[in-house]
Amino acid sequence: MKIFRYPAHFVGQTIPEFINRNDASQFDLSDDGAHLVMYLNKPTREEITQITSANTEIRMTCFPDILWMTFKFGSLEWSEVPYTPHLSKQADLLNNLWNACRKLTVMLIDTSNGRVLHIGTVEFDSSFSAALRTGVALIIGSEFNKQAHDALCEYVKSNFDVPSIAEKAVVSFKFLAVEAY
């Protein structure tokens, strides 16, 4: 069985394909865990501090065939990213669902120069891990329709602000800071 992992990045590394990327977040699963990548153009010192060392909360809200991840780093505003396992290319989720939903790696990228500013990992608590596994298993067992997925994403984004999506969460996980490596 092939194990799918995200590429091994390190703090200080410059990744050319991340240069000039729009500010965004990306959530994905691989066989070695969940990954939350924050792409920011010239993040402020305050943003870096909040993302790397402040109290953090991640929540999962379920919509049909989409898990909507919302997260709040310290005093920063809530952020969000939709996720469907049908678009995960870094995972064999049917065989490695337990490992894929066990921990979270957070990575911060400065898109002005493609530099990795932070990488850290935290283990999910059992409630969040179980809810994530259940959500992924239910979605992966259904037929995927990309057009319906995109339409639902557009509907949610146009009808709900990020804090209200976070309020609808079925599970949340709070932690002080990710362990940097």
Characterise the protein shown here.
- This protein has 181 residues and is an alpha+beta fold.
- The chain has one domain (19-180).
- The protein is built from five helices and nine strands.
- It has helices at residues 45-53, 93-100, 126-140, 146-159, 162-167, and strands at 24-30, 33-40, 56-63, 66-73, 79-83, 103-110, 115-123, 171-175, 179-180.
- It has a five-stranded mixed sheet. Strands 5-4-3-8 form a four-stranded antiparallel sheet.
- Strand 6 and strand 7 form a beta hairpin.
- It is globular, with a radius of gyration of 16 Å.
- The model has no long low-confidence stretch (mean pLDDT 89).
User: How can the largest sheet be summarized?
Assistant: 5 strands, mixed
Q: Please, how many domains?
A: 1
Helix content: 25-40%
**Class of secondary structure makeup:** alpha+beta
Could you tell me the mean pLDDT?
89
The beta-strand count equals 9
Shape: globular
Give the N-terminus to C-terminus distance in angstroms: 28 Å
| Low-pLDDT runs | none
Enumerate the strands of the largest sheet in spatial order, edge to edge or round the barrel.
1-2-6-7-9
Work out the strand percent. 25-35%
Q: What keywords describe this structure?
A:
single chain, 181 residues, 29% helix, 33% strand, alpha+beta, globular, 4-stranded antiparallel sheet, 5-stranded mixed sheet
